[in-house]
Amino acid sequence: MKNLMDMMKQAKQLQEKMSEMQQAVEQISQTGTAGAGLVSVTLNGKGVMSRVKIDPSLLKEGEGEILEDLIVAAHTDAKSKVEEELQNKMQEITGGLQLPPGMNLF
From CA 16, how far away is CA 72, in angstroms rounded? Predict the structure, then answer.
């Protein structure tokens, strides 16, 4: 019976931590850059792009392919930063609470 109570307590803690993590994910915003800052992309914690900034010098005839590559690179940079921040937030929020293997909060 004690094990059942412990499991119920842990499940409640996990539910609270998951709720905290979901709120934290909504607050995350990271900007990735490429081409020495000529292109920047901003993503939220769920990976949704909220902004693209392109230096006017790239808006020339024949620069399309370069611009496309820079947008992809900036997105990759932003995604990497979001993932790193998510990992840090998860560790901060969950503390010592052990999550089941394969459990992904984001």
Answer: 36
